[in-house]
UniProtKB/TrEMBL annotation:
This is Iron-containing alcohol dehydrogenase family protein. Belongs to the iron-containing alcohol dehydrogenase family. It comes from the Bacteria. Residues 25-170 form the Alcohol dehydrogenase iron-type/glycerol dehydrogenase GldA domain. SUPFAM superfamilies: Dehydroquinate synthase-like (SSF56796).
């Protein structure tokens, strides 16, 4: 059944502005096993940490952090955010933090744990440490939190006052995550180019030009290194891909500001979260959303560069295991009504899909959503190698 949460209340406008840039964490410690040596850095921020993790990572966080914190005379408390970064869990966690008299918040886990920890710290005006346990998102880096309903439907995002005070990127810890999380992270990170080049590719602003160019570099790194990295977890090339998904993707979002963040790929993701699309993770839905966006550019603008980019991505997705269509997302049997609900949410008046340089109506979006693997019509598709790089790069 589609989630019938009021469409009117979703999508609070992000208040990001280039007047207040939040580019990167104050400090990043990265390396294999660095968590064990991070106590002194955390100590600079507080001595009464509240550690926020998910139900499944709570025990791991205790096991990992206990030896680190035992070296200090700290009063540590642990709490789970539950299943989603939702308003109810945020209220509960703020209360827990206040009762514990926490002076620093530590987020430990995937994107939702980190988003929750950042938001609790933001609202209580406390410093925050992010410790990602997978390469699935850039949430450890950014000054942005996504808020979901209790059932996991995307509601809105919140622009935070600053990026995390400390990011601890421990490759050993990330290597314990299922491979699928990194594959999803690659999908989320590669979206930066396809979205930023559309929303901001013609910008004359120094920092936005720089962010779009970095997004292109990020895409190239991922296209070149992902397949090798996934075959060799823990290797140098694998670490480079982790740096790309966790760090570089986040810094691009910070440098480009709200204008440079998302277009149709994330709008489609947001729509899918409302139709029980919970069998797939964020970056998987976003990766599929890139194909939908390219298909729209192809169908509505006759954009042949978008057509060739889509064919290039389909090959790349097949190689590393990203979803190419609704069936791969576990949504192969959804009803027309479900598809319409997802499209309606994605086309909400506040949605970032309207950053596309042309108007999209529901029937067109639905058509694009069911034809992401369609062959190109063969006309003028001669530039299969360089995606959109030749004429659209700034
Ligand atoms: Zn994303």
């Amino acid at each position: 059944m589609p989630n019938q949460f009021s469409i009117k209340t979703v999508f609070t406008e992000t208040s990001g502005s280039l007047l207040t840039l939040t580019v990167a964490p104050t400090k990043i410690i990265r390396g294999a096993g660095v968590l064990q040596t991070a106590a002194a850095e955390i100590n600079l921020l507080g001595i009464r940490p509240l550690i926020i993790a998910g139900n499944s990572t709570l025990a791991i966080s205790q096991k990992c952090l206990q030896p680190v914190l035992a070296k200090q005379n700290w009063q540590m408390a642990l709490a789970s955010y539950g299943v989603n970064c939702c308003e109810a869990s945020l209220q509960g966690l703020k209360k827990t933090a206040e009762e514990h008299q926490a002076d620093v918040i530590i987020g430990f886990g995937g994107g939702k744990a980190l988003d929750t920890a950042k938001l609790v710290a933001h609202e209580l005006r406390l410093p925050v440490v992010t410790i990602p346990t997978s390469g699935a998102t850039c949430a450890a880096t950014t000054a942005l939190s996504n808020v979901y309903s209790e059932s996991g439907a995307f509601l809105y995002d919140v622009a935070l006052s600053r990026c995390p005070d400390l990011l601890i990127l421990d490759y050993d810890l990330i290597q314990t995550a299922p491979q699928r999380t990194l594959v999803a992270g690659i999908g989320d990170a590669i979206a930066k180019w396809y979205e930023a080049s559309v929303s901001s590719g013609n910008s004359q602003q120094t920092l936005i030009i720089s962010a779009v160019q970095q997004a292109r570099v990020l895409r190239d790194i991922l296209l070149q290194k992902s397949a090798t990295a996934l075959k060799k977890p823990g290797s140098k090339v694998w670490q480079e891909v982790i740096d790309a998904t966790v760090l570089l993707a986040g810094v691009i979002g910070g440098l480009g500001g709200a204008q440079c963040r998302t277009v149709a790929a994330h709008a489609v993701h947001n729509g899918l979260t409302h139709i029980s699309g919970h069998g797939s993770i964020h970056g998987e839905k976003v990766a599929y959303g890139i194909l939908v966006q390219l298909r729209l550019e192809e169908m509505l603008q006759s954009n042949q560069l978008a057509a060739s980019a889509r064919q290039q991505l389909l090959k790349f997705y097949a190689e590393i295991g990203l979803p190419q269509n609704l069936k791969h997302l576990g949504l192969g049997n959804i009803t027309l009504g479900d598809l319409q609900t997802a499209a309606e949410i994605a086309l909400n008046p506040q949605s970032d899909i309207h950053r596309l340089p042309f108007k999209v109506v529901m029937e067109q979006l639905m058509a694009a959503m069911v034809s992401t693997t369609a062959p190109t019509d063969g006309r003028d598709v001669t530039n299969r190698v360089s995606t959109r790089g030749m004429s659209e790069e700034v």
